[in-house]
């Protein structure tokens, strides 16, 4: 339902994405795993039409996102939970989304319940929200249109352990109901616990992809991840040192 | 599947029932423009800062009309014109804040994900401030009438009800133009502080340019929107004055808005 085909993105002299190819099928959770700066967010922005690939193509449900008639009813997106007006209430953020998509206002209450934000919290302004509340609001916004495809960039950032557990369950349930979920993360354990399929990325290139079992090659997923990302680590002097990668991979 | 499906119906699933049937049908039709318009109009007043701007604009119109009436006496046309000073100052700012807001708070990220046809969002954003310019102009006229009557009564002076309908129309049009200039400048720069500074520096700019010999004077005569719009706002514009107004409209509204549109369409949203 999501398809990246030979997507490259060049900013000046930097190749942010280099020939990225992978697909996400219906009814599965795919983890997009890589160290910070690997190109995950760039790839997701290209997928939802906020940036253009230099070459290659990304499609959702068979079409470039921007050519979907009303993409918000098919694809739920959370790219940055912090990107909201601080003076707007959480409820108002969702109301604007529901209005845009032509959904009844009752839908706002439904998604609030779904992500566990209370009535009172929803009437507070976004500026006062904790990081965890922002993530929940962002997920609520992504779910407004009961989408068949979910695209989430680092959705677990700032969630407490209960929150992470809740989200894991939510994503599993949505996948089992037929949803295609793509979530990015730099946290190996988070991805490992929820994803059926993992795409590892470093310095803009897909390093490996497959199920967690396939990728662990009998010695654990972490070893594979560190080995693959070690020489792509961006910090100076960290080349070929798996130890340096560890800080980024599992911090 | 059953357990998971069940679970989904308990929580997420409020989703499937109300949505899949009716609203989901809308997934194959683009979002109607009137819906985008309603959303963008709502964004103008759904935050505290937005409400404050709205209240300040209304209050300034009332205050300037009443204060001028108390000082110069019951002259309807003069009182209406006074409101224009407040509107001429604040409408460009409203226009700038309206277009730049989504970049300042990075809400463009969600807005353009819901409607990737960015030109439609920009159009929906520009209409409410232009309509507000018309509404506030009418409001100023409506406030000026009782203000004139009251001042006439209180100060025991004969009220001067003389107005030129064409003048009021042109005056309203002038207010729409300054709002549009703010929108265009905001769309071009996508940065509120920079746009506001430029907006408020232009009178100084033209004062200087106008003194730079005959070429400078000609430039100011043709391109200073505040000067070229004056005949329109008086309601007695000649053809040559109309040509000058058109030139400054192209310079301050058409060109920056076109460049801003290209920028909004092409720029990556991060």
From TrEMBL, chain A:
PROSITE patterns named among the record's database cross-references: ABC_TRANSPORTER_2
UniProt keywords, alphabetically: ATP-binding, Nucleotide-binding, Transport
UniProt KW Manganese keyword: no
Molecular function terms, GO-annotated: ATP binding; ATP hydrolysis activity
SMART domains to which the protein is assigned, alphabetical: AAA
Region spans: Disordered: 229-251
UniProt key word Transport: yes
Gene3D superfamilies given in the database record: P-loop containing nucleotide triphosphate hydrolases
Pfam families assigned: ABC_tran
Record-stated family: Belongs to the ABC transporter superfamily.
Name this polypeptide is given: ATP-binding cassette domain-containing protein
Taxon lineage: Bacteria, Bacillati, Actinomycetota, Actinomycetes, Streptosporangiales
